Structure formats: structure tokens, C-alpha cells
Amino acid sequence: MFLFCVLGVCGCCGALRPRYKRLVDNIFPEDPEDGLVKANMEKLTFYALSAPEKLDRIGAYLSERLSRDVARHRYGYVCIAMEALDQLLMACHCQSINLFVESFLTMVRKLLEADKPNLQILGTNSFVKFANIEEDTPSYHRSYDFFVSRFSEMCHSSYEDPDIRTKIRMAGIRGLQGVVRKTVNDELQANIWDPQHMDKIVPSLLFNLQQEEITERSPSPETEKEKESPIELTERCFRELLGRAAYGNIKNAVKPVLMHLDNHSLWEGKTFAVRCFKIIMYSIQSQHSHLVIQQLLGHLDANSKNSATVRAGIVEVISEAAVIEASGSIGPTVLEVFNTLLKQLRLSVDYELTGCYESCTSAGSKVIKVHEERQLQEAVIKTIGSFASTLPTYQRSEVMLFIMGKIPVPGMYPALGSANTGFEGSRMIQIMLLKSLLQVTAGFQTTNMLTALPSSFLDPLLSFTLMEDAEIRLLVLDILISLIDRHDNQLKVLTDISVLKLKMDKCSRQDNLFMKKHSQRLYRHVFLASKEENSSQGHFQSLYALLGLICVELANEEVVVDLIRLALALQDLALTEESLPVYNRCAIHALSAAYLNLISQLTTVPTFCQHVHEVIEARQKELPFLLPEDVFVETPKIPEKLEKVEGEVLFSQAKIAETLGGSGYNSERLATPYIPQLTGVSCSGKIPDSSI
């Protein structure tokens, strides 16, 4: 009788338990391997939808059961509890959902804190499902700080078993992705873009992005998403994070990348750093690209006294990023970009010549490796070219003027080398900046040469053609060629004239005005540059290319006449300047012959062509070393001494004036020898020139 009463009381108490607890208990089977009791789960879901005010209690009770099952290592019931929570979250979008979510997040936190990898992965999967749910009601006090920290830790897992380690890391990545999705567009949540969060999220993603060797996993019936490698998943997550970054968040998203590359010495390898910033540039909104470039430039400045390999790595990344950046979107501080790069060039030259970063007398100063500084200089020059290629013509003209203003020109601009580097420092800076200018002019095309190349640019540039330094003169000639060649005719001019297919447009009004203003200055500098004793094969070939391109790109009838006069004046120069080396005199003869041959075929005046052809044939028979085929080669075939050249191997100014005069050209002007007007003092201090 007593036993019956006890059982009756117990049964009565069980019936008095709250309905939500009974419904929760009923979803758990006697054997956890049987899984969630679906019929009872449907009843619980219906009850939660019918009585939403009970939802928070259901969550609290499920959380209590889960905590008890975790403590007792009853992991089967833990999985059932989480599955039930997931289904309730998906089904319920009522005003009481916030209290239920707090219970849910408490359970996820409990699983993530467990030592068992399977529980950590289970908790992460539930959190990711929750992150994809759009809540109908706002939450004012929810915090995700713990989840950012815990998922970041999982991304760095060092678990012994490689397969389990990979799964934990991938769970951490998915968890971070879920946190970002849940918070990035919710103004009521803690700002995920704050440095305290970005300093954990970004390095965790980069750590997994650089894990290039992935242990092969045994095939298993997983979904395609689970088969995704950590690197692929990380890159997708990183791209998603960057794609959501607004204008004000770019800095906080990029700064941890810079710090990670610094801390792990990843600039020197370049490959990973370039890959990271390619992902960044392709992922962020295009109008924000210039912000990334500016951060990279600032970081380059901050590392001015770091090793050349580190600076070269940063410069390489800037170069790659500039190519990706949309044309003309460098932002409002275009000249600041070039100013920073030119500053790095100057610093590198100083370091190379002084041999140290600080005062060489200071203790512990680093030793400079010259070859590394040279590599850095080439990288900076390449980057300047990459930037310039993204600019419209008007901005590129501004950059050309800006660089020209930085080049030290004796007598015009002060030397920019430091006190410790002296003349050699100024010379090296001149060379580096002229190389930079050559990069900027590559592919430069303008319909109005007069506005694109004002006197403030041309005057100092042409003055360099008269300097004693052969390397500087050659760079200036290449720059002039690059500026004038608007139809890619340079290589054609240097090939066999008879098979040329030159693009010749009618000289525009703007080109006529340009030549009217600057032609005599150009001719004068070509003539005087030919007299330099230390000129080499490259100089004379560049002079020929320059004359040929002026003829093809900018010539009208008056220009053609003056160019022929200049070519004949060069022939006279080779005859009269006996103090010049034999090679130079032969090269000047060859330059004159090559140019007259080109211009005769372009003018197509039969008698003029015949005269030029006759002189060339005579030289081929008697003096082949006065033709480009024997002179403009690696091993020129020239005599030890040049005997007096006269007779039929010389071009006759009188015959040329007569033949062209009959075709409408100004015969009186053709018959007048070309004499450059020499007044003033040149920048080299030895050849006077009125243009300086």
C-alpha cells in the first residue's frame, strides 16, 4: 500500500511538471544513437510557435540539460540538444527570440570551451547556422567578443592529428565568417571593424592562407563544402570580409595585414605579400582602392630605415596593386604618391653611397648591401611606371613636370644629394629620376604636344643632352623618343627602310605649332649631342631614331627641309671635326646617310631618291664603314684612321636643293647650310647653348 502511494505521488508530480519541460524531455530517446525524436520535436516546435513567451524558458532548460550532459560526457544527447536548438532557431522569429538566443549562445560557448574537438566543431556549426538567420527584433546587449577570440584560437589549432587539426582550423574560419556576417550590418552590435577585433580576425585568416602544404585527407562521404581546403575557405572568407568594408573601415582591415607581414618577415619573399594584396584590391569596392595604396605608401615610409629587401617587397606589392587599381582612381594626392616613391629612390642612393642607414659613426649601424639597394631602386622605378600607366594624359603630364622638378640640374636646380654623397650622389639621383621619367613616358600619347610638353619641361630635359655623362644623355634621348613616338614606329624606323610600314598621319595644327616653337631647339641639341666624344653605338642609334620619328610624327614641308639641312650639317661635322674619335666620325657619317635614306623614301621624289641611292652604293663599294651596317653593330668594322672623305661618297647639298626644289620644296632654304645659334652657357659648362 505504501509503495503504491509513493508511485502515485511521483506520477502526480511528473504530471505537474511544466509542459515545456515535458515536451523538451520527450525529444530525447532512451538510446542517444536513435537520434532526435522527430514527432516530439514537431510538437515542441508547434508549442514554441503557439506560446512564444515560453521560448526563453525552453532555451534555458535545453541549456541546463546540455551542460549536464557535457559534464557527464553524454555526447550523444549533446548533439540532440544542439539539433533541437537549431531547429527552434530556424522556426521561431518572434519578439522573444532574443532571450532564447542568449541561452543558445551560452550553449555554443559551452561547447567551444570543451576540450573535445568534435564538440568544438559541433558548436561552430550551430553558430554558423545561427549567423545566417535574419532576426526580426534588435538586440541591444549581445556580445560576440568571446566568439571572435575563441574562433581565432581555433584557426591557430596545433592539434596533433593533422586531419582533426585541419577540421578545427576550418571550423574556426567558418566561425569568424559567421561572426562577420552577424555583426557587420547590425549597428546595434559591437563594431567588428574595431582594431581589437580586426587584430584577431585578420591574422587568423592570413595564418591559414599561408599554409600551402595541406595534408591529404582520406575520402569520406562529405559535402562539397566540407571538402573545401582551408586555404580556399580562408580566401573566400577574407574576400567576403573585405567586400563588406566601407570607406571608414579600410584602414582597420588593412593595418593588421601590414603588421602580420612585418611580424613574420613575409615582405622579403614577396609572393605571399603580393597574393594578399591582390585579394584585397580585387575584393574591396573599387572607389576605395586608393586608400589601400596610401596605406602601403605610409608603411613604406615607416620602413625607410629597414633592410632593402623589406622595402623592395613593399614596393613590389605597391606595383602590383597599382596595376589592379582602376584608371585614374589613385585619389586626390597623385603627386604625393610619386613624391613618396622618389623619396625612397633618394634614400636608397644615399644608403648605397654612404654604406649605412644612420650616421656611419654610430654604434650598431647596419651594413648596406649594394646589390640589394640596386634591386630596390629598379623596383621603385618599375612601380613609378605602373602608377603612371593608370593615369590619364593630363595627370601624366603633371607627373612628368613634377619629376623633372626633382632632378638636380647644375646651374638650374640645386643638387639633391646629401652632404655625404656629393657629386656622385647628385649624378646617381639624376640617373634614377631620368629612368623614372622614362617609365612615366612609356606609352604616353597626346594629341596636343604643345600643352603636354611645355617649355618648363623641355628646356631642362634637353639640357641633359649636353652633359658629359654618356648614360644620362642616352636616357634623355630615350625619353624624347618615347614622347614623340605616338604610333609605335620606333622599331620600324630602325629596321630595313625598304620594307617599312610606317604610320604617317597628316601633321595636325597642334603639332605644327609645337614644331614652330621647339623645332630649332630640338635640332640644335641633336647636332651638339653628336659632337660628344664619349658617345657610343646606342647614342647614335637613338639619335637616328629621334630624327626618324620627328620626320614621321611631326613633319611638315618646312620641318622636312630643316631635317635635311641638319643631316647635311652632320656630314660636314664629321668631315671637319678631326679631333673626334674615328668611330664617332664614322658613326656621324652613318647617321647622316641612314636618315637621308629614310627621308628620301618618305618624300618619294625620284631624283632625290636616286642621288641618295647613288651615294650609298658608292660607299658600299669604297667606304662601307660610313654606313650603319658596318658601324651600328656590336663589333664595328672601322679603320684605325679615317682618311679624307670626298667625291661621290658624299651627299651634295646643291644637288639635293635642286632635286627637291623642282618638287615644290624651298630650294633657297635647302641650299643654306644649317648652323646652330650658340649663345649662353650649357649645363655641362663647356658647350654654349642659348636654350639654357
UniProtKB/TrEMBL annotation:
CC terms in the record's Gene Ontology section: plasma membrane
Signal peptide: 1-15
Gene3D superfamilies per record: Leucine-rich Repeat Variant
Entry keyword Zinc: no
Organism name: Pygocentrus nattereri
SUPFAM superfamilies reported for this sequence: ARM repeat (SSF48371)
Family per similarity comment: Belongs to the EFR3 family.
GO-annotated biological processes: protein localization to plasma membrane
Protein name per the record: EFR3 homolog B
UniProt keywords, alphabetically: Signal
Highest taxon in the source lineage: Eukaryota
InterPro entries: ARM-like, ARM-type_fold, EFR3-like_ARM, EFR3_Homologs
